[in-house]
Specification:
The chain is mainly β. The chain has three domains: about 45 residues, no CATH class; about 50 residues, Laminin (Ribbon); about 45 residues, Laminin (Ribbon), CATH 2.10.25. About 5% of the residues lie in helices and about 40% in strands. A two-stranded antiparallel ribbon has the order 1-2. Strands 3-4 form a two-stranded antiparallel ribbon. A hairpin with a 2-residue loop joins β11 and β12. The longest helix has 5 residues. It is rod-shaped and about 95 Å long. The mean pLDDT is about 90. The structure holds calcium ion. Calcium ion binds next to β9 and β10.
Length: about 140
């Protein structure tokens, strides 16, 4: 006999799961993608099964109706945190100082210093200092009272 596979699979009458000899035989279920267990009653945790999201991101298992076997899409990864970009399977620090248009440092008063996950503007002009809460702005000493 077949359990019905919870409506989430088909019965494989060639594979005996439980043989109660002369009483009955329980056959295996071939579960639809995303479902598992003997009777297809459990959802597969693709994130636990594959663990392929980059560190620092969050894996989310897609519901079975969104699984795409052709594209092997069973889970999604969140974006890398701010200050990082994904390259291949890793979140890599963005070097904001590599290009002038990716940082807010003012050239004549500061120099950009890359940090892992961020950057800051190191004040170079005489007397200029970072505002206590703003690592990107160098304040003119005449503005500091
Ligand atoms: Ca950085």
């Amino acid at each position: 006999m077949c359990s019905g596979c919870n409506g989430k699979g088909t019965c494989d009458f060639n594979t005996i799961l439980e043989d109660m000899s002369d009483v009955y035989k329980v056959v295996k279920c071939d579960c639809f993608t995303g479902y598992g267990g003997d009777h297809c009653s459990t959802l597969i945790d693709w994130c636990a099964a594959f663990d392929q999201c980059p560190e620092q991101t969050t894996c989310t298992t897609l519901p079975p109706e969104l699984n795409n076997e052709a594209n092997h899409t069973y889970f999604t990864c969140s974006a890398c945190p701010a200050g990082y970009e994904q390259r291949g399977s890793k979140c890599i620090d963005v070097d904001e100082c590599a290009r002038e248009d990716t940082n807010n440092c003012t050239r004549n008063t500061s120099v950009c210093v890359n940090l892992v996950g961020s950057y800051y503007c190191n004040c170079t002009a005489a007397g200029f200092r970072n505002d206590a809460n703003d690592p990107y702005t160098c304040q003119d000493p005449t503005d500091l009272k």
